[in-house]
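One record is given unchanged without comment:
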Amino acid sequence: MIEEEDAKHEAAVKAAAQAAQLKKDTKSPEAPEFETPREKKLADEARQINAELGTEAIAINDEGEVVDKRQLLKGGLNVRPKAKAAEQVAQSDYQAEYNARRAAQRDSVRERESRQRQQRLVEEQYAKTKKRAAEEEAEKEEELKLRAKSKKTSDEVVGARERYLARKKAAAQES
């Protein structure tokens, strides 16, 4: 598969070289063919400027526009922003003030919503705490009631003891 792709690539390179050779043979290097009269006029102007300057500083790009080669080297990251007009500055000040007011409004709304959420959480926690305290109190009351029911008075304990001793005495006499 790799060999097939290499063969296709080599064939494409040979075809491109042959096409370039044919193009080179059919055109003269000094007078390239242009599709439109505008492009031809621009090329003539570029040749005149180059002759006056004595260098090849001006060329024609693919779109048929006159291009200064020195300008091509200047483009890129070092492009300076255009100076703002007074109207743009005033408008940007107005826009900045408007944006600041909008941001302040959004912040106040967010702050209010945050306070409301916190207040709801505190209220819920308070309600849970109150409910838990009420439940614990109810459990304590029930426990006290159960203890009170199971607690026997001293008279009951004395009466039960006397009955036990009487049964024991009766059992001893019978045996």
Summary: Residues 86-150 form the longest helix (65 residues). Residues 2-74 form one domain. Residues 89 and 95 are 10 Å apart (CA to CA). The chain has two domains: 2-74, 86-174.
